[in-house]
Amino acid sequence: MAVPSAHEFHWQSLARLPNGRVYHTLTEVGGQMYMLGGCDASGRPCPNLEVYSPEGDRWISLPSMPTARAGAAVAALGKQILVVGGVGEDQGPLKMVEIYNTEEGKWRKRSSLREALMGVSITMKDGRALAVGGMGADLLSRNILQQYDFRKDVWALLPPMPTPRYDANAHLLDNKLYVAGGRQCKRPVKALEMYDTDSRSWTTLPMLSCKCSYAGAIWDAAGRLCLLGGLRQGGGHQSSKFTRNVSVFDTHRGVWLKSDETVALKTKRADFVAAVLRDRMVVAGGLGHEPSALDTVEAFHPQKKKWERLPPMAFPRCTASSIVIRDRLLVVGGVNQVPSPAHEILYVKEEEYL
């Protein structure tokens, strides 16, 4: 499939959310997009579960979660959606675990975490969920690795990570779980570590080159970790700065590429949407050195080795949730001064999506 040119990308505005939402979680089951929880304009976590229906361009409300939560870790297995931790109505972390069966339309409470956690990172392997790190009620980061067995409804502790953290980027490649970045309290973490599911052991890899918060993280088709942009925190009298940095870790060679082998973003930004769409890395929106959220979008062309401008989003925002389904990037909610109800789709086709 040929890499699409910049002019082939199109944005389309879809049905807006009933209310502005942020810190909600998106997942896919059977080609459909489900949206779980999040915070409303008053900052309260909500129990809402909705599914987007392209037929009729509308959101359909489904049975609410038993527990209102924002920033939950979510994983899908078959027709089931697993919801783990997050932030509850008291603004503290949660230990409750729940499963929604999309065929039955019912929620079930499952075995809770050993302790309440927010900022857990979750991936799926062989019908089991791997839950990495998190932050406890004491505001300290955890180094735990937990495995959930859907069939037995049991949580098991696996060997802990070398570095405690929450909100890390976790990605499974073959039998290896890579965990990059994250935070301890408000401080960004530079650690990159790999867990081998066969040997059940951790390996410490070369650290991230930039100690940035709110960077974009993308895993490309070659199995490389690409860290994009972010906010470099100032120290002493230095002010914090948005960056255009692009750092690439080659998992095959176990090294970070040299700076002359990477191409910086066009726009300094952080807290933006980052995804791979039709073999092109795409970044959209976020915050930069502007008084309000960005609407600008750019995509990397692997053959030309440069970032190119794409059409802007209709609704500028940061902290948006996004998901790629069937070669389409859906961007839902986020913040532009207040939580946004915006819902847009980026695609590479001449005809309308709906």
Annotation keywords:
globular, Neuraminidase, single chain, 354 residues, four-stranded antiparallel sheet, mainly beta, 0% helix
Structure summarized in a few sentences:
0% of the residues lie in helices and 42% in strands. It has 354 residues and is an all-beta fold.
How would you sum up this structure, described in words?
The chain has 354 residues and is mostly beta strands. It has strands spanning 10-13, 25-29, 32-36, 49-53, 58-62, 73-77, 80-84, 97-101, 106-110, 121-125, 128-132, 145-149, 154-158, 169-173, 176-180, 183-184, 187-188, 192-196, 201-205, 212-213, 216-219, 224-228, 231-232, 241-242, 246-250, 255-256, 273-277, 280-284, 297-301, 306-310, 321-325, 328-332, 335-336, 338-339, 343-347. The protein has a single domain, classed as Neuraminidase (6 Propeller), CATH 2.120.10. 0% of the residues lie in helices and 42% in strands. The protein is globular and about 50 Å long.
